[in-house]
Fold this protein.
Amino acid sequence: MDKAPTIGIVGKGALGLLFADIATRTLGKDAVTFVMDEARYVFHSHTHYRVNGEERTFRTVPANEAEPVDLAILAVKSPQLVGALNVLEPLVGEGTCIISVLNGITSEERVAERYGWHRVCGAVAQGMDAMRFGSELTYAHPGEIRIGDLARSRGGEAVVERVDEVLTAAGIPHSVWDDIELRMWAKFMLNVGINQTCCVYGCAYGDVVGVPGSVQRTDRGEQFRTFVAAMREVVAVANAEGVGLTEAHLSEMVELVRGLDPDSIPSMAQDRVNETPTEVETFAGELCRRAERHGILVPTNEHLYRSVCAIEASWDLEE
């Protein structure tokens, strides 16, 4: 690229902070901007963060002061998607590309309905173990963003090339995939399994997949069985929808989790600690609705859905 690219991020959670930390260290603080609505700006604008123990500050502006960027990254949780699409608007100019790293398999459609398929690059964030509690972010593995051309995107390979250029310049780990839709479903399968299992059982990665040499933390417990059973139900639904997930993809996801920090916890387990709304509708809710259309039984995900909803109900979130 002839000049340093600009990146706008909507969502100051674990993923947003992770990408901002990497990009600002590579491009400088002025190249990366967090954008938020007025209420969140008042609360978050002057927050100082610690990333892996080091002090960090990030440029943050309210939406009415934002300007178009080369790459807009949508990094909120799915319950905040509707509001985030409004906040995204001032970041979108003539040449802006958009990636969504939201969990699930539906956010790209929502973005495209508002801003056009020609801007949307398929993306999935995978392999990171970032955790944010308050103003503290920790991670051992930055993972990567997998990008690729969605069949529905009218931007085609050109939008993928532009996103690839920006991520490369920013130093954000990523890779380009020809089968990005399959990879998005594989990540959906992983989230349905690991996020919900860790949330319901209140446990870490190592409690699910085991820790080498640990007698107490093996991969033969109820948590592991739930993790695998929930993912197998995703395989069945994916195949009914023409997406070729296999047992090999399931095993790949298990090995991915085994490579993460065994004491870290995924986002829904963090939600349980923080008592904030989870993405259960995006995971078990979405899967159960699709399964019903195909006449497929998904008892593990129905159980996880009921369990997470009961946990959320105990928090009295309306207060």
Residues 180-201 form the longest helix (22 residues).
